Batch of 3 targets.
Target 1
Amino acid sequence: MSKVVVIGGCGRLGLRISLIAANKGHNVTSVDIDEEKINEIKYGSLPFVEDGAGIYLEQALKNKTLKLSLEYDIISQADVVIITIGTPVDSNLNPSLEPVAGAIFDISGYLKRDQLIIFRNTLSPTILNRIKTLIEDKTGFKIGKDIYLAFAPELMDEHGNIHNLLTNVQPIGAFEKESFKTAEKFFKTITKGKISWLTPEEVLLAKLMKNMSSYIQAAWANESYLIAESFGANIHKIADAVSENREQKLEIRNPNPNNGGPGMHKEGWFLVDRIPFNELITSAFKINESMPSQIIKKLQSHKINKIAILGMTNKADSDDARASLSYKLRKALFYQDYNVACYDPYLPEYSDSSVLQNSDAVILMTPHKEFKNLTDVLKLVKNPNCLIIDLQGFWNETRENGNNGILQINTAKATVKGKK
């Protein structure tokens, strides 16, 4: 097995590949600048919520196949170097090379012949040739001859977890066959999924297109909601009518007012900066980002002072709050002079449920499993006249008795029952 170094190895992306590799027998060192996270992991605690990852961490520490470090010099002993630092967009929505270029500058003095460098992060396809040139210029090595370079972004399903990495497909982008074969040999030790050779541009497009396909579908679900609303129709009844089983995949997806996430605000711009017809992606962005404003419009016909937001993270049962639209909603509500309370059991700063008391309205933004029983939520609110806003149709009560996700508790026709 190989000696593996993961740069950014204590982040969500880096720690997943670190733990999987360590549990497959590789000797892994996760390098990170966050000493607090390093110490947490050393003592067996995950620095964030990651379903199923705890057992991998426990086993890796027990087998001593995972180490953690603040220093880059360990790279000189590695066979495989995995970089998990992403590329943001600048104020003009152009891809920014600086974080990746900085990582290359930091590690270049420790790189040696025959090493495999893997970029695991989501990059703009426009900067891949520049990355190759930077590595060759800084090291004096020729890619494919002296040193090997591959791009292998993580392809995780929308609700996937660390277990999926063992069976996921793994396309690998490489400029030439030697780098692909070297990367393929490594990934065959990690996943049983299909491994394909693509160009570097193709593999990043695969990652971006997969993500944007889901994002655009979510925008259509949100636009369907708005269309139904314009006719006074109930989108949840429509969706249920064309689906045999609501627990299965819906023909018409549920609307989602919090369809954000750390990549969605930038990845679309990686795709559309050179095409003449970019309206589909840009429109999806506008629709999804406008949903907090649509919620506020609904509130204006009600007499409301205090509003509670349920869920501040960008997806259910997670503590990842990056780019969550809950924060956009909170700010907009403040500007409208509402008294706003936020509750999220996954975030320490919002974990006090007592803030829900006496709320005039509760807005569900993130459907955590802790919220599955509306009765329990209402016990925390303690207001029999509370207005419930649940555009996703998460609760049976709003789905069956609400008006397009709006339910006035004291006028509900059915007795409130917990979602089963």
Target 2
Amino acid sequence: MNKLTIEDLELKGRRVFLRVDFNVPLDQNRQVTDDNRIIAAIPTIQYLLDHGARLILISHLGRPKGTPSEEYSLRPVAERLEQILKKKVVFSPAVLGPVAETAIDCLSDGDCLLMENIRFFPEEEKNDTQFSKDLASLADVYVNDAFGAVHRAHASTVGVAQYFDQAACGYLIKKELEFLGTITEKPTRPFCAIIGGAKVKDKIQVISNLLDKADTVLIGGGMAYTFLKVQGYQIGDSILDEEHISLVEETLKKAETLKKSILLPNDHLTAASFSNEIEVRTVAGDIPSGLLGMDIGPQTVDTYCNEIAKAGTVFWNGPMGVFEMSNFSAGTFEIARAMAANGGTTIVGGGDSVAAVNKANLAAKMSHISTGGGASLKFLEGKPLPGIAALTERN
């Protein structure tokens, strides 16, 4: 990565527009229930404050569809950030106009201001030119540390950056790109990629691109049944993505040509429907009609864990089964435990995988937990990230 970072900037007394990803879950009482994304931004925020920046934080929350709504207000996030920083965080209910300008004018060196949800403006997701110019007028310097949003060409991630002489990344983006770059450039081998989840279309390009990098790819989750169907197995009533069968065939042929291993489940936990209240059957090989594959079986768990144990680099995105249901969570949690026991580089990306690692209290055992599932997948597909491309190149 050859982009400016916050350490390249003159900060004292300057208004810094910092795009963060505070898209965190709130409960019915409007309290933050998971502050991991806030905590991930703290090193950048603290550095900027310690160096005398007048900090203006911009984020989105949820999908308000361009309409202001109390449900999606960032006010509770400002309160939680204040607790974490142990420092006053001013909240502005406006992003533009006299209220916002007054709040910014009142900032002193080392002060912190969080603006209201940027997605209350439809111009944000449209990457509107005038809106981007108006946002840029609020500050002297632009910093993006919202890795979870860099794959989207929005006003606050792309449009605004071109109106600053210096557009830099924060520590979180720097860390994300360094770890993901390790996978694509110089992974310690053997490199094992684990891809799960339900939908073939969401992951097939990632799998194809990873075949050029990884030594072994382990596949689980609902999409494994489309792969198994292509290989001639009976999959019962399991999920089947008929629309993308040809892409699966191409991917399997590519693996054969490259002499790379794609491992698929050879046994399964099955049930007659998506329920924790009915009989669970372990089935090896073909799945009978009337049953759905719900999780990888114990033989597959052993095979996959052995692959993980001998790997120098492991990347994981996507659960192995319907892990939200306790009867079908074992495969996913065993993968998490195997990664935690691995002594090499272990990277977890994607909301469900990260949730599983957190639920198992194993996050601290991983080398890196990515904060941007969609962004990390785009990166591993080999596609450009607009929010990164918009940053200033270092001379």
Target 3
Amino acid sequence: MSGNVVTQLFLPLSLAFIMLSLGLALVVDDFKRVVTAPKAFVIGAFGQMVMLPALGWLVAALWPMDPALKVGVVILAACPSGATSNLLTHLAKGDTALAVSLTAVISVVSVFTMPVIVSVAIQHFMATDAAPTISVAGTIVGVFMVTNIPVMTGMAMRHFQPALALKLETPARHVASVLFVLIIVGAVYSERANIAGYFAQSGLAMLILNLSVMAGAWILAGATGLNERQRTAIVIECGLQNGTLAIFVSVTLLGSTTMMVPGGIYSLVMFGTAGVFMFFVLKRARLAAKP
């Protein structure tokens, strides 16, 4: 399969299917919780849409790496949470309803915020002659087509054909997980000649970003008086990003395989740190339950 076919066809279609699988699990009430339980949502949204991009920008600015990698860090930090964050929140006994609401709403809002953040990052970190051309409006349309349209399609199926949607939800999630792995492996393989150098430049930076945002979310949620289940949901939502979307924006919309590397590395790192965090909160819950 040629690189052009992968970036222009397979990657967008795969991302669209992943977002469709997310839509199959969503209902309108997931958006209503923004109004009915605003405090936890606002704190989670602040963590993901303000704290994470700010930390991403700080890491990119301070860490010595290729300018395109710096932009890639910002792209990843500007993405919404990944589709698996809701499942991991459930497994960690967190507030799954809150996690679903954050994923649903921020996936919609980030379509408009991410292109602006990325455009500013390109102008700031890259020399004019090396910077790719980015149309904010075009990027909004491109991201909307492969994220929001599939999510709305999945939600429509869940609303009008609930039995079919529930039947498809689990196998669709499994297929989406396989596609996600294939995209990450493909991203790493496509840059195999440079991946060691890129990993040396940005690998530790992405681990620091991931740990920083998870720790920041834990402290923020605790300081604002949220309960343990809400705290767990917000940490996972902030820590698990949509790496597939970051790769799509980098490769398909911006035409840069270098920019996709931080998103690929972060996607590998985040499941390890999420696993450690889940072990921590489940052990904490068991100890708290003992008489």
